[in-house]
Each structure stands twice: as C-alpha cells, then as structure tokens.
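Handout for the seminar on molecular recognition.
Each group receives one record of this type.
Step one: identify the two inputs.
Step two: read the structure output and locate the region that could contact uracil.
Step three: write two sentences on what you found, then compare them with the reference statements printed after the record.
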Amino acid sequence: MTSMSRRARLLAALRANLACRGRLGLGRVVGTPAELERLAAALLPRPPRESLESIRRRMGQCERCPLAADRRHIVFGQGPEPAAIMLIGEAPGAEEDRQGLPFVGPAGKLLNRMLAAVGLRREEVYITNIVKCRPPGNRDPRPEEAAACRPFLEAQIRAVAPRVICTLGRPAAQALLGTKAPISTLRGRWHRVLGVPLLPTFHPAFLLRSPERKREAYQDLKAVARALEGKERLD
Ligand code: URA
C-alpha cells in the first residue's frame, strides 16, 4: 500500500470516528481538516528522508510520462536544502525548459520582485513545480502527469523540510490538495500537505495578465513571511 493511500484511509477512519463520537454525544476531540491532517501526519510512519541529490539521481532521464518526449531539460528545482519556504508552481515554461531552472522567465522575474517586496530573498527559498518537464504549448499538466511526478515532489518536500509551502496558481494547489475547488476559494487560506502548512496564491503569470489581483497575492506572501516569524495562525 502506498503512503498516500494509507494517509487517505487514516483520514477517512479519523473522520468516521469523529462522526460516531458526535452521534453518541461524546463531544469532538479534533475536527478541522487541519487538525485531522496533523493527527494523520503524527500517526503515520515517516518514510526515511532522502537528499535532493539522491532524489534527482533516482529520477534519472525520467520517461514515466509522455512529457519526456518534448523536453530539453528536466527542471528539478532550485534552492537550499533545508529551506524554511518551498514554492511550488505548475510546470516549466519555454525559458525554464531551455535553462533547466524553475521560474527564470517573465513570471519568475515578477516572482523575484514580489518575494523582495515582503522581505524574502529568492536564494533562501526552494522552488519547484508539480511536474518537472514542460507541457507542449504550456498547457496545464494532466492529472496523470502530475501523478507520475508526485512521488518525487513528496520526496523533495521531505528533503527540503519547509516550515511553510506556498503554491503558485490553480493547478499546483488543486494537485497538492487533491481538490477541484477554484483557486479563488483555495487562495489566502491555510491548508496542510504531509503535515506542512500550505498557502495557495495566484500564479505570477496570471498576475502579469491581471495586475489588479497583485494586492491579494502580496497579502498571501506577507502571510507566508508572518508565518515564519510565528505571527500567523496556520489553521
Ligand atoms: N511557471 C511555472 O509554473 N513554473 C515555472 O517554473 C515557470 C513558469
């Protein structure tokens, strides 16, 4: 059984247990999704932590999904290990595919400015994507492509051991949280993945097209910076 299915089964069991306690009038010990995630993370055995270098070596010249066919480079990720903040976008674009590095195109330049505006330096943040190869024509990654990359992404999260994850854009938030909820309802709220607090925000490429939404994204990044100072409620 995979660690994901164990997690899903444990969460379902915890939820059923809570519903049963409610019916029997025994009161609720825990209840919010964040509390359940934390409990599940504490109860599940942790897979051993693997270094980023070892994960990248294990990925090799990956051909686990069709995106391998058109890529120039695998864009694995960039940043320190460990890092307090991990940013997760959707997929490399043309410039990222050319250079083999995440967020180096126009969206990346805006991201750098936004990080600086809330007092964060790009060099202190670990940045990756839910898929490591560029989808043709920059289309959204398909669920099966994200699923093929997911074990590597989860291993990266364990290696980087971030205190906070911030996802950039709808596909990254939906894939990581296993939901089809729109980004407008996901962003600006704290969630949890693998026991790590996660805040979705807008993708910088979207903000280049819709600059009037930048204010909300700045609020989200400020919340991330506040979380690192212990000044933010994470659920
Ligand atoms: N958009 C992303 O989601 N990721 C990148 O690395 C670049 C652009």
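Reference statements: The chain is about 45% helix and 10% strand. Residues 69 and 235 are 41 Å apart (CA to CA).
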